[in-house]
Amino acid sequence: MQHTFGTSRASLASRTSLRRTLIASVALGVALAAAPATAQAHGAPGTHAVHGTNTPVRVTLTVQGPDGPLFHGKVWTRGHDVTTATGGTHRCDGTNGSAHPSAVPTPTAALDDAARKRHFGWDGAWYASFDDYAVDSIKNVSGGGSAYWNISVNGTPTPVGGCQFQVNAGDTVAFTWTAF
Ligand code: B12
User: Fold this and answer.
1) Has keyword Zinc (predicted)?
2) How far is CA 146 from CA 31, 71, 89, 178, 180, in A?
3) What's the rounded Cα separation, in Å, for the pair 175 and 145?
4) Residues facing 121 on adjacent strands
5) In angstroms, how far is the first alpha carbon of the chain from the final one?
6) pTM above the 0.85 mark?
7) Which of 44, 75, 83, 108 is deepest in the core (most CB within 10 A)?
8) Which helix (H) or strand (E) holds 26?
């Protein structure tokens, strides 16, 4: 009897414990599900944007000219239409050339955002064949036939033009004057 009574109390305690565990698990699940969404919505540096979203991201932008740095700073950016004197107005949001199915932040859009905020100019010819701009001059510095503005992200030259490549929060985007 003692044993039966003991088992019954233990069984009740076990069911109560199981219910508490279930409630705690559900609460934890809800909290975990909400946490990443909050971080992404704020675009915190160091976090990566969800692929395929155009949430503004903060990147470090460097423009390295032939005689030294022309710009270095952090910039908030997202994919958007840009306008250049030579190339006119076109999208620059990663959907260029069908590189991404929906808009994303890009290197050239980051350059454009920095240029607008810090009041400097850049220019680029539009190539319909690539659905992209060739960035030809920044702050009136151009390649002049013997150099070009190389685009790299985190130290690696992009394999596509600056409106086709996706940048993520915390990335380092560099436009570097590079001699042929
Ligand atoms: C030569 C060349 C260059 C030269 C062009 C100047 C010169 N003195 O010749 C330089 C070194 C400047 C160059 C730069 C870049 N290039 Co390039 N280049 C080529 C290459 C090998 C031949 C182009 C060519 O002469 N075509 C023949 C002429 C007759 O046709 P064209 O239309 O007049 O050619 C012009 C355009 O191609 C333009 N151009 C060259 N590269 C690029 C890149 C982009 C995005 C755009 C819009 C235009 C453009 O310059 C050419 C000369 O005026 C092609 C590969 C290929 N097989 O096409 C890659 C190619 C076009 N380049 C490419 C890339 C990625 C770049 C860069 C973005 C690399 C980088 N990360 O910096 C940069 C452009 C950066 C910027 N400032 O916007 C890619 C483009 C892919 C894409 N879908 O966007 C290609 C296809 C190579 C590849 N990865 O397969 N490039």
Assistant:
1) no
2) 56, 22, 27, 9, 6
3) 17
4) none
5) 93
6) no
7) 108
8) helix 2-42
Q: Which atom of ligand 1 is nearest to the CA of 136?
A: 77
CATH code of the domain occupying 57-179: 2.170.130.30
Distance 164 CA to ligand 1 centre (A): 13
| Phi, psi values for residue 178, rounded to 5° | -130, 125
Ranges of each domain in the chain:
1-42, 57-179
E-state strands within the chain = 57-65, 68-77, 80-84, 88-92, 122-127, 132-138, 141-142, 147-153, 156-157, 172-179
Q: How far apart are CA 145 and CA 115, in angstroms?
A: 24
> Under the phi-then-psi rule, with left for phi > 0, alpha for psi from -120 to 50, and beta for the rest, what region is 71?
beta
Residue with tokens 């190539």: 127
Cβ(130) – ligand 1 distance below 6 Å:
yes
Q: How far is CA 76 from the centre of its chain?
A: 9
